[in-house]
Design brief:
globular, 12 strands, alpha+beta, five-stranded antiparallel sheet
Length: 177
């Protein structure tokens, strides 16, 4: 009878139907490994959430420059031909900006530390929920002369395009985030 019981267990063990948990050197069962299409949606993100470092990444705190470049009907904004876009948020930027490209940004933050201007050619993530792209406007000489920028904002982690617009300093209100 013992022999017949052993012979019954051998095929089960070989087929994998009878499996024991694997263990590490301490004799504790290993954690199951995740497999499948679970991967990061952006640098620093994964199944456990995001862990990108936050900061201002070179954005200068200068309330005067922010308001001069972002206030509708501002003379400086209308005469500064650099492509740029202004943003208005209620979040303290130093704790909520992450994943900059390039690593050192060019732009300004106002005195409240919640509003900012970015020049073209830059990308930043806000609150790990929005990825903001500011680029030069292509094929529109008037927009380029006015310092307008092409702004695209993606909702993360799905990368859904939320905003795709041409924004012009001195003519438009800052984009509310």
């Amino acid at each position: 009878m013992l022999l017949s019981s052993v012979l019954t267990l051998v095929p089960l063990a070989i087929s994998g139907a009878l499996a024991l948990p694997t263990s590490d050197s301490a004799g504790i069962a290993s954690k199951p490994q995740l497999s499948g299409p679970i991967g990061p949606t952006q640098p620093g993100c994964g199944p456990a959430g995001c862990h990108n470092p936050t900061g201002t990444f070179g954005l200068e705190r200068n309330s005067h420059m922010y308001h001069s470049l972002c206030h509708p009907h501002s003379g400086l904004a209308q005469n500064d031909h650099r492509s740029k876009a202004c943003f208005d948020t209620n979040l303290k930027l130093e704790k909520y900006l992450s994943a900059p490209s390039p690593r050192k940004l060019k732009g300004y933050i106002d005195g409240s530390d919640t509003n900012f201007v970015l020049f073209a050619g830059q990308i930043i993530t806000l609150d790990e929920k929005l990825e903001i792209h500011v680029d030069e406007v292509k094929g529109n000489k008037r927009a380029k002369k006015l310092g307008c920028a092409r702004v695209k904002i993606y909702h993360l982690p799905t990368w859904t395009l939320e905003v795709d617009q041409v924004w012009c300093a001195g003519h438009n209100q800052p984009i509310k985030l």
